[in-house]
């Protein structure tokens, strides 16, 4: 029997290899002719969509194959025709998602040379996929440690490729003089944290679409690592129109405006995480 794992692996093996894009023009874009949506039987796609929703709602440990069967409308015997276990379902959700994201990102990066444009492509690619697939985002961020053995190793490898690609773009920004010297790992993982959290608060009828949201996030990230030391938007808005303020006003601001650390602590305290402590989409990036 042709298993779901072998089906996806064989289809992706026919595409150009997915390699880290760490330098401008270092790799050609991958093809996503092999993505599951174009290759897998409809029943398998149905199973994985339903599984992502069930795992997102109940958690991997709290969900059962019977839950997936009910949500997908496919009998237990039908499920086992396509997948061997709940563990394999989790693997298929994760490996397909990361391979699809990487293939699409490589396509975008292949035609871009400016580091800022490459950063925006990274952010937009990530947001565009996960805002359309919030259940998958929740599963990837919360249940990533549930995979075992070869499943965990294979998913871990492709997550590291994704992280390495993002780190390479940061290094390009630094080489171009856009980013100051700082810990690249901290900068890149912070960016992933910001992107991964978006599906938990995003509201399509209120918030901008993925492209505009990506511009905003890329701008926040770039201003945070800029070399010119410019005032933040909040600090500029707090200044009088003349650009000066009296000593009394300055002193009052020092007394009443909380320190950045205090603001961060207050923000973290205000976030109520679901049981398990990891929330819908944690700041845990591909590592």
Task: Give a verbal description of the structure.
- The chain is an all-alpha fold and 287 residues long.
- It has a single domain, classed as Tetracycline Repressor, domain 2, CATH 1.10.357.10.
- Helices cover 64% and strands 0% of the residues.
- The chain is built from 14 helices and no strands.
- Helix 1 runs parallel beside helix 6.
- The longest helix is centred in the middle third of the chain and has 27 residues.
N-C termini distance: 34 Å
Please give the number of β-strands.
0
Principal-axis shape? elongated
Beta content comes to: under 5%
Describe the structure using short key phrases:
single chain; 287 residues; mainly alpha; Tetracycline Repressor, domain 2; 14 helices; elongated
Quick structural gist:
The chain has 287 residues and is mainly alpha-helical. The protein is built from 14 helices and no strands. The longest helix has 27 residues, at 149-175.
Give the SSE layout.
Elements: H1 4-13, H2 36-39, H3 42-58, H4 65-72, H5 76-82, H6 86-110, H7 115-132, H8 134-142, H9 149-175, H10 184-201, H11 210-224, H12 233-238, H13 247-256, H14 260-270
Helix pairs in contact: 1-6, 3-4, 3-6, 3-8, 6-7, 6-9, 7-9, 7-10, 7-11, 9-10
